[in-house]
Amino acid sequence: MTLPYCSLLETAGVETGFITTPGLIYSCFNTKVQSQHYKSLHPERGMTLNVNGELWVAVEITLIGKADFLEAWRRGIEEWTRYESDPDKRGLYMTRKIQELYRPIGLKENDLGLQYGSRDRFVQSFRRDMGKIVDLLVSEYREKAAKNEHKEEWNRLGIFYGKFGQYTDAEDAFKKALLIDPEYVHAQVNLGSLMYLKGEYNAALIQFRDALSKLEKGGKAKSLDTVEVLLNLSKTYDALKLYDESNKYYELAYAISPGQTEMYAYLGKTKLAETRASEGFVSEKDIFFMDYSEGDIRLKAKRY
After folding, report:
1. Would you give the DSSP letter of residue 84?
2. Residues 152, 261 within the same domain
3. Domain count, the chain
4. What percent of the chain has pLDDT over 70?
5. How confident is the model at residue 21 (pLDDT cuts 50, 70, 90)?
6. Most exposed of 31, 147, 167, 255 (fewest Cβ within 10 Å)?
7. Quick one: pLDDT band at residue 270, thresholds 50, 70, 90?
8. How far apart are CA 15 and CA 32, in angstroms?
9. Same domain, 85 and 219
10. Mean per-residue pLDDT, 233-254
11. H-helix or E-strand spanning residue 80
12. CB 109 within 8 A of CB 115
């Protein structure tokens, strides 16, 4: 099961490998998450493998279908760490390197028993396991928000929920931040960004416009926050195919910070946008979320 699992992930563009320990071989895959950001995968640093600065997840593949993914993950890392003091007994081999040496073997569908698979059962299992992982990842942020009742903690919790597609929980968190401080621009922008991801573009515009007004009244018309809100407005109008409006807000953002906006230059080309629309071009589905870390030190803007 290990090699087919790795091959399927490789086909989907995910870098994989396989781990060997005495009497066992199982899979691992590269998350592409930098090692310092391990908490975006699991609260425990030891649940991942650091390979050249990127985090890999080990999976005891024989447990898939018998237990949930978290259990298969934990068993995989436990088997690896069992030989921490005797590393010669364990090995990690990259699938792509192996594929360079050995030609693939052609298999028929009935060789793998795929004809007995159930799409609905697979989707149901995925959603259940994903829900458990998301709950694990956000638990720390949820506890902090509930304990401290700080607007920043609720805002950060909303961002994490939004990142994993838990839009209802994300919306609740942003609204709780705004109940604490109705003038909290970050939570309002993030609420608009959430509406954007849900395809509710007109609702997103309401939040972005109001946030922009608050920034301007607060003397922050030339701030980085304002640039991000202007870009969010431009992207939302672009999604609505209102290219003149998209162009207007892009140009306002560009006037404040050319370097911050150059990667979105297509938003400032009205005629080009119209051409793209006629050709069925689809722009990136990204949007800015705003957050501050402890001590009011700015985090890198998040786009999902």
Report:
1. T
2. yes
3. 2
4. 85
5. very high
6. 147
7. low
8. 9
9. no
10. 94
11. helix 69-81
12. yes
- C-alpha R_g of the chain: 23
The pLDDT confidence band at residue 66, using thresholds 50, 70 and 90, is confident
Q: How far apart are CA 246 and CA 125, in angstroms?
A: 41
As a whole number of angstroms, the distance between CA 161 and CA 155 comes to 10
Helix (H) or strand (E) holding 28: strand 24-34
Average pLDDT over residues 260-265: 85
Residue pointed to by tokens 């705004």: 178
The residue type at 223: S
DSSP annotation of 114 reads: G
> Is 122 part of any domain?
no
123 CB burial (10 A radius; 0-12, 13-18, 19+): exposed
Domain span holding position 64: 2-115
- Residue-level pLDDT at 108: 61
pTM (two decimals): 0.70
Scanning the structure block, which residue is given the tokens 């994300």?
170
**Two structure tokens written together for 29:** 């895959």
